[in-house]
Structures are given as structure tokens and as C-alpha cells.
Write a structure and sequence with these properties.
Blueprint: E1 11-12, E2 20-21, E3 29-34, E4 39-42, H1 44-50, H2 54-57, H3 62-65, H4 76-80, E5 91-98, E6 104-113, E7 121-130, H5 131-169, H6 175-207, E8 215-216, H7 219-232, E9 240-244, E10 252-253, H8 255-272, E11 277-284, E12 287-293, H9 325-335, E13 339-344, E14 350-357
Parallel strand pairs: 9-11
Antiparallel strand pairs: 1-2, 3-4, 3-7, 5-6, 6-7, 8-10, 11-12, 12-14, 13-14
Length: 364
């Protein structure tokens, strides 16, 4: 669609600019109108959001074909009044509007003037976004705040309680009692630290700022280290098994993040599964695949698409943790150029399987 409303064109910087933008490739809806309100252009996303085709809109008054109303029922275009107001006006901030019989949209407007400073409005460029997308983001943020508040409350209450008690009544307790209290405070401080680390990981993943520092990583050795740590913490050794199938290629990856991926998947198997948690490492055509299997109830087929979302804990599963672990695992695997899936394990239970390419060193 061209800026003048004819189909098949693009928008550029200025007149005849070489940097052309196909408006149908933009992620938001875009509508352009002249100073009178005659529609000049409608892109594909705007068609979808409004339900009004470009053929029906171009050349007609925007108030007739796109009669936006605010929450109080007022005519938005008349209220916008492009020809009125201060000559310094350059835009109208985004606000929720709706069309008759349609869902709510977030609508903003920019005024194009000639000359640019103080001249009359020659064109109005309107952007449209689906309000439900913002609502989902806001719900996600609210869930995150609620989860963080819930997860922080318990350890911080414990830390505050024990430290206040020790400070007020230090002489009344034996050394053994003091040791128990301090160990509890230390464990709860570790819990808070893990939560903060998870939140930072989520932020980096969502913003695409995960940094991968590659080195040669011995994945079976890292898996043995994760298992040894759990056994040292009190888990029975026969709860875990490691299988290495075939000769593995040299893998260049971020060792700390591989440890984090394995630790999260093993923790998930221990927390939600039963029986033995088995780690299987094998070569694949373009790298290595790692499967972590448990012998629990598995993941119902209708829940597979939700497993890697934030805050997922599953129906009927024992609660615990923030529900961010598998989201972080997926983000770290994909940051390595790999992929991860969940399916039913051969012996029942769940199998989380991720694949990593061989990779190259950072300096290559």
C-alpha cells in the first residue's frame, strides 16, 4: 500500500527516500488520513484489528468507516480535532478506544505538519494495537509481583524472626540452639538469592540480553556434578542414573548455564516425579541431545504447550518454587541455538529433552 492509498507500495523517509518500509510488514495497525479526515492508507494489521478492508476505507471519511469511541462514548475523531488546538501539538498519546461491536483497541495519533514546526496539519498517522495483548502483559506482571511477594514473605519473615530473637535473647540460648537458628537464616538467605537470580534471568531472556560465554563443556561430567551435589545434600544415590550413549562431539557452550539447565531439569524431576531420575546424553547429527526422565505421572498432552510458560506448576502437582524454572531452561537452551521439548518417557513419567549444536568458541 502506498502512502497515497494505492495498493502495493511502501512508506519511506521523506519524499522519494531510499529506505522504504512495507507497511503491511509492521507489527501494529496503521491508518493514514489527510487533514480533512479522508482515509489515505490502511495496512493489513489495521484491517484485521478493525474488520474494515482497505478498499472500503480508502477515500472515505474516517468518522464514517472507523467511528472510534472512547469509554464515555464520545466520537474520538471529533475530539481529536486535528485542525484545532495548539499549533505545537505533534501527537495524541495512546488511549483505549473501540469500534461498534469490536474489541477494545489502543489508539494513538501523530500529526504531520508542513512546515514541520507550526505549520497546519497535512496528515494524521494513526497506530492501532490489540488491547488484549497489553492486558496479558499486565496480568503477567501482576502474576510476577504476586509470586515474588509470596516467595519472599516466608524466608524474610524467618530471617527477621530469628535475628530479632538472637539479638534480644542471645545469652538465653545454647550454642547448639544458636547454630540451628543461624543455619536456618543462612538457608533462607540462599532462597532469597535464588529467587532474585531467577528474576534477573527472566528479565534477560525476555529482553534478549542473555550472554553466552562459550568454552568446551563435558556435559556428562556436569551432570555427574549436579547429581553429586544432590546426593551430598541428602538425596539417596540410587534416585539418579546417568547414561551416555555413543561418542559425543566437542560441545562449545556456557558451562554455568549448562549447569543451570541440568540443575533445573533434575530438580523438576525430583520435585514432580517419582522413582529414578535418569539423565541420558547422546550424540545427534548436529550436536548433542540430553534427556532428563522421571517416573511420575508425566505431563498431560493438553498441558504440553503450557509447560515452558512462566509460573507453570501443573494441575495436581505439589506446589513449590516460583514456576519460573522451565521458562528459564527454555530461554537458556534457545540462547545456545538449541531446542527443548517435553514428552512421555519410555517408562512413563515425563521426559524433557533438549538438543544443543556443537557451537564455536567466542573468538572464532
Amino acid at each position: 500500500m502506498r502512502g497515497d492509498g494505492t495498493p502495493g507500495g511502501a512508506l519511506g523517509e521523506g519524499d522519494g527516500g531510499s529506505d522504504l518500509i512495507d507497511v503491511d510488514e509492521l507489527p501494529d495497525g496503521l491508518v493514514a488520513a489527510d487533514h480533512r479526515g479522508v482515509v489515505l492508507m490502511v495496512n493489513r494489521v489495521a484491517e484485521r484489528l478493525t474488520g474494515v478492508g482497505r478498499e472500503a476505507a480508502v477515500g472515505r471519511l474516517i468518522g464514517d468507516v472507523l467511528p472510534f469511541r472512547d469509554p464515555d462514548g464520545r466520537d474520538w475523531w471529533k475530539w481529536l480535532d486535528p485542525q484545532g488546538g495548539l499549533i505545537s501539538r505533534s501527537r495524541q498519546p495512546e488511549r483505549p478506544l473501540h469500534l461498534p461491536g469490536r474489541q477494545e483497541l489502543l489508539v494513538a495519533a501523530r500529526f504531520v505538519r508542513a512546515p514541520a514546526r507550526g505549520g497546519p496539519v497535512t496528515r494524521v498517522v494513526i497506530t492501532l494495537r490489540d488491547a488484549s495483548a497489553r492486558a496479558r502483559v499486565e496480568r503477567s506482571r501482576a502474576d510476577l509481583v504476586s509470586t515474588v511477594a509470596h516467595e519472599l514473605r516466608s524466608p524474610l519473615t524467618s530471617v527477621k524472626g530469628f535475628t530479632a530473637t538472637l539479638l534480644a535473647k542471645w545469652e538465653r540460648f545454647t550454642d547448639a540452639q544458636k547454630l540451628v537458628m543461624l543455619e536456618t537464616v543462612n538457608a533462607d538467605a540462599d532462597r532469597v538469592t535464588r529467587l532474585i537470580t531467577e528474576l534477573l534471568d527472566v528479565s534477560r531472556i525476555e529482553s534478549g540480553r542473555v550472554e553466552i560465554h562459550r568454552q568446551v563443556v563435558d556435559i556428562p561430567a556436569r551432570a555427574r556434578r549436579i547429581v553429586a551435589g544432590r546426593v551430598a545434600a541428602g538425596e539417596p544415590a540410587d534416585r539418579f542414573a546417568l547414561e551416555v550413549l555413543g561418542d559425543l562431539p566437542e560441545i562449545w557452550a556456557d558451562q554455568d548455564k549448562i549447569d543451570q539447565i541440568l540443575a533445573n531439569l533434575v530438580e523438576n524431576g525430583v520435585r514432580h516425579g517419582r522413582g529414578t531420575v535418569t539423565i541420558v546424553v547422546e550424540p545427534v547429527e548436529w550436536g548433542v541431545a540430553v534427556a532428563v526422565r522421571d517416573q511420575g505421572e508425566g505431563v498431560a498432552p493438553e498441558l504440553v504447550d503450557r509447560v515452558f510458560r512462566q509460573f507453570w506448576r501443573g494441575h495436581g502437582r505439589r506446589r513449590g518454587g516460583t514456576g519460573l524454572g522451565l521458562f528459564i531452561v527454555k530461554g537458556l537452551v534457545e540462547a545456545h541455538g538449541g531446542s527443548i521439548t517435553v514428552q512421555r518417557a519410555p517408562g512413563g513419567g515425563a521426559e524433557f529433552r533438549f538438543s544443543l549444536p556443537t557451537g564455536t568458541p567466542d573468538f572464532a
